[in-house]
Amino acid sequence: xxxxxxxxxxxxxxxxxxxxxxxxxxxxxxxxxxxxxxxxxxxxxxxxxxxxxxxxxxxxxxxxxxxxxxxxxxxxxxxxxxxxxxxxxxxxxxxxxxxxxxxxxxxxxxxxxxxxxxxxxxxxxxxxxxxxxxxxxxxxxxxxxxxxxxxxxxxxxxxxxxxxxxxxxxxxxxxxxxxxxxxxxxxxxxxxxxxxxxxxxxxxxxxxxxxxxxxxxxxxxxxxxxxxxxxxxxxxxxxxxxxxxxxxxxxxxxxxxxxxxxxxxxxxxxxxxxxxxxxxxxxxxxxxxxxxxxxxxxxxxxxxxxxxxxxxxxxxxxxxxxxxxxxxxxxxxxxxxxxxxxxxxxxxxxxxxxxxxxxxxxxxxxxxxxxxxxxxxxxxxxxxxxxxxxxxxxxxxxxxxxxxxxxxxxxxxxxxxxxxxxxxxxxxxxxx
Length: 432
Ligand code: ASP
Ligand code: MG
Fold this sequence. Notes:
Layout: E1 3-7, H1 15-27, E2 34-37, H2 43-55, H3 59-81, H4 87-106, H5 111-118, H6 121-136, E3 141-144, E4 151-152, H7 163-171, E5 178-182, E6 185-188, E7 193-195, H8 201-211, E8 216-221, E9 226-227, E10 239-240, E11 242-244, H9 245-253, H10 264-270, E12 274-278, E13 287-290, E14 300-314, H11 322-335, E15 339-345, E16 348-354, H12 357-368, E17 371-385, H13 389-396, E18 403-406, E19 410-416
Parallel strand pairs: 1-2, 1-8, 2-5, 3-5, 4-6, 8-12, 11-13
Antiparallel strand pairs: 6-7, 9-10, 12-13, 14-16, 14-17, 15-16, 17-19, 18-19
Helix pairs in contact: 2-3, 3-4, 3-6, 4-5, 4-6, 7-8, 8-10, 9-10, 11-12
This protein binds aspartic acid and magnesium ion.
Residues 8-9, 38-39, 44, 122, 183-184, 198-201 line the site of aspartic acid.
């Protein structure tokens, strides 16, 4: 049985969390073949801020941010290993000085390239500490550098995997000892660092599982599984126990922050089940994603906030026909945007997009030359899988619907945020 475990940032956020992880592994009847690990806590966000500071002109801001990262990681090392054992602290210091050198070297390079050189240090640091700690407590493991295993093309920040090369390299690892590998990062065959996209560690686990033809993947989170709505936003959300790859992909596509959307395809291809369990309640029944889903028809609710609606109309009273749609979607692709909802009419195309200023503004600028635009900001998009009409009516009551879309399986409604509750309630009714 080849199992791959993935632990996210929350499960290793400090020394106490790492100790807990060690106990969890020591007490577990299954020892994973590979452990995929994210950066500690919010380190990746801190590295993004460090990168911005490095590219800016405020040297002291940059120094402070680097020092904060250093303090965080060294405090964890000290809490775990004490002040006597300096070997781990030395490795952490060496990584931090590489990180610093990298900023000097790449601060004027193309941003995406600089980003991929910088951002993976969170995972290099966390795996160094966790690997050493597990060895210390008798859970023998080998630390591996993902940049020598996960081989990708050079599409920075969203690299595409070279499956053949990656498989070959992963299969060459010893199957006798547990391996620890950084999530989220890879490199080109020429050794240039790449990343797989934010929150990409889940995808890393799927890549490794696919290439090793694993029997299962376990993603350990701070919630006991997948829910039919975000439990922080819906006060009566319930856990989904069995869902199919297809349904999970639909939920991820609609923005459910369950697992990285790219994770499921490589698993489905090899029929590798994915379990989502909580490191806080490891004995609770997990959610299982596999071919078979008992919960596939259960209504599920996904909120996407900070949405923008653009109503796009040709200036000359002509039709919003295919050539015009082709033009608009071409700009959308160039801007790196994804339409969360598409609606339209004879002389109008409406797009609901994430309010991602760096991407949105160039797109709006391109549109403004040829089209009349009406823009609504600060919107909330509610998507519902398998809704009943009664549920839809209940969830829309008292709120203006700015745009909507429905098909046999999914309904979407766009509201003003100001008209939405802080905490939602799933209406009673079928499976309510
Ligand atoms: N550390 C990376 C991020 O925060 C990857 C991950 O956690 O999955 O995006
Ligand atoms: Mg994460």
